[in-house]
Amino acid sequence: MLKQKYQFKNYNWLLVIVVLAISCLGVLFINSADSSYTTKQFIGLIFCTGLMLFLSVINYNFICDYSRILYAINIVILLIVKIAGVKVGGARRWINLGFTRIQPSEFTKMIMIIFVAVYIQEHEDDFNDWKVLARLAGLCALPLLLVVIEPDLSTTLDITFILLAVIFVGGLDTKLIRKCIIVLVPLAVLFVWYIQTPNQILLKDYQVTRIMTFINPSKYADTSAYQQQNSVMAIGSGQLYGKGLNNNTISDVTVTDTGLVSEQQTDFIFSVIGEEVGFIGSVIVIALLAIIVIQCLIIANRAKNMSGRLIATGIAALIGFQSFINIGVATQILPNTGLPLPFLSYGLTSLLSCMAGIGIVLNIGLQRHY
Asked: Angle at the Cα of 269 (from 264 to 275), degrees rounded to 5?
């Protein structure tokens, strides 16, 4: 399975160049936000680039053959997080390796994309049978449950959206989709009402506050909405061309200098982008992310089998959804939640997961059917 002849004229160099370009920009923006993270991110980028190129020449079908083993390993690692993980800010999401920390839920995204893609391919003829769908739902529910109890609701929802995109492209019956929408819309309204009742048990208090801040931002202007409002202020202050990277002049002080937006190197990296390279720079960054998503979808369309098509679609969904959510949070059009901006935010586990995904997509592109 590893012995595979490739036509390297099909190697998607545009995707490689764009991924490396935006990742290098990420190092620059992280350095501007907090230079103490720069060296680790740069070293991580070198390693992740090597992994991406290595996976690009490994037959993705070989990886798919071990999807069940990957699923089992993922469950074990998530259980280790719950038992012996590092607790930060009330959440136990990391495993300390000594030289660095990893966040296994980031690996869950990639592993579940592969697992669900293989499952759908194996049940291509009877995928819409309720028993097949129920079994898939149960298999997806277990890792999602382990992530949500860390607690990490934002990552759980992110993985759910990604897998729904994969399942939709896999051929889910449109009649079933309509029925689900009819049921889920009133349930969503009921959910919003319930979480505001005293002694509700579904969400943590801070999670409820984040949702209510989005629904009624003026009520929380001085508390939970404060960070997002400062992020919007930072982005707006960049105007058309921005203030420039690492701008520390007294006359042009940045929000980074004053510390009005915390965690700028991770969840709010877009506030750094908007402030320091302005509207034009922000549009360029968004365009680069869009190119990556589009290239993944093009490769998905040309994939030689169902699993390849769904894996490439899943990676496109991962990058697209997370980019939309991260930028939406930074610009206050979505509730405040902690998701990294792919290739740009500080976080070696996130970078590793995204780079590995791109490597597999590149291999799918090497084996296209036309």
From this structure: 95
* H or E element, residue 95: strand 91-96
Pairing of strands 86-88, 91-96: antiparallel
Amino acid, res. 144: L
On the 0-12 / 13-18 / 19+ scale of CB atoms within 10 A, 349 is: buried
Q: Report the distance separating Cα 126 and Cα 237, nearest Å.
A: 55
- Spell out the residues 6+ positions from residue 358 whose beta carbon is closer than 8 angstroms to its own: 15, 19, 52, 292, 296, 315
Whole-angstrom distance, CA of residue 106 vs CA of residue 103: 6
- State whether residue 96 is helix, strand or coil: strand
Answer yes or no: are the C-beta atoms of 360 and 111 closer than 8 Å. Answer: no
Confidence bin at 345 (pLDDT 50/70/90) = very high
Neighbouring CB atoms inside 10 A of 49's CB total 19
* pLDDT given for residue 131 in this prediction: 93
Rg of the chain (C-alpha set): 21
Percentage of the chain surpassing pLDDT 70?
A: 90
Phi and psi torsions of 96, nearest 5°: -85, 120
Taking the CA of residue 32 as centre, how many other CA atoms within 13 Å lie in the half-sphere pointing to its CB?
A: 28
Q: Which two tokens stand for residue 205?
A: 């208090």
Q: Could you read off the pLDDT of 103-157 as tens digits, one per residue?
A: 999 999 999 999 999 999 999 888 988 899 999 999 999 999 999 888 888 899 8
Residue pair 106/350 in contact (Cβ under 8 Å)? The answer is: yes
Gap between the terminal Cα atoms of the chain: 21
Two structure tokens written together for 73 = 């390993």
SS3 of residue 92 by DSSP:
strand
Distance of CA 302 to the CA centre of its chain: 24
